[in-house]
Write a structure and sequence with these properties.
The structure is a homodimer. A two-stranded antiparallel sheet of chain A has the order 1-2. Chain A has about 110 residues and is mainly α. Chain A contains five helices and two strands. Chain A binds a DNA duplex (30 and 30 nucleotides) through α4.
DNA sequence: CTTATTCATCGTAATATTGCAATGAAGCAA
DNA sequence: TTGCTTCATTGCAATATTACGATGAATAAG
């Protein structure tokens, strides 16, 4: 198969899973790190920084744009990418909702 | 290819990515939801709750155990699963480290 | 116009993931 | 023992993902 049965789960569960899927690659995490390390927006000399081919970086950026985490604007001949702050906060909240759900009821390992 | 080039990235980036990969499936999110909704430990009538085959649930539980998020003990003929509280906190911290890194430098969208 | 640079997209090969039926191991009941 | 239940594991088919080279569009320089 290889296809996830999204129809069995809630919208929240599916959204969290699909956002996690975008984060589930070290290259994309590294791109995010570079984007907020350079507090100005960096264009794709990400290709220089990370050791991946230009096509690969471009593909990862597309996925990050796909969930709205990253934005890009044309800067003459090159592209300027940056993090979408509001979406960042939103996604942070998504994970916090998951992580804070546990710890309210039981505090001890039960098995 | 289909293989991730982990050698290009830091250990932290790789760990975060591999934890995110485990969360990147709605069935596994749903399993976690069930595990802390039943504040006692539930055995695998998860098969009843979710609409997936027993083999599929078992495989997902194995991946959750793989990153230490979930523990299981034998309860007679059945299995009792629960969340590992300390690992849970640890992983929560992993994500918070990522999410809190941004927002310190720039507050505005820059492009 | 010609050339170079920057990036996105397409096509492809290698692998990974997902979900399931079938099988097997282990415990318990009769 | 025989049968029943509960899980884990194996083996498979159908996708999905990852990374790359090649190509093409767009802009700027000469």
């Amino acid at each position: 198969m290889g296809v996830t049965k999204t129809d069995l789960f809630t919208e929240e569960q599916n959204e969290l899973a699909s956002v996690a899927k975008v984060l589930a690659n070290p290259a994309r995490i590294a791109i995010l790190h570079h984007l907020f390390r350079a507090n100005a927006c960096i264009n794709s000399d990400l290709v220089q920084e990370l050791g991946l081919a230009q096509a690969t970086i471009s593909q990862h950026l597309r996925e990050l744009k796909g969930i709205g985490l990253v934005q890009g604007t044309i800067e003459g001949v090159s592209m300027s990418y940056c993090i979408n702050a509001s979406r960042w906060t939103e996604i942070k909240g998504l994970f916090n909702t998951l992580f804070d759900q546990y710890g309210l009821a039981s505090k001890e390992d039960c098995c």
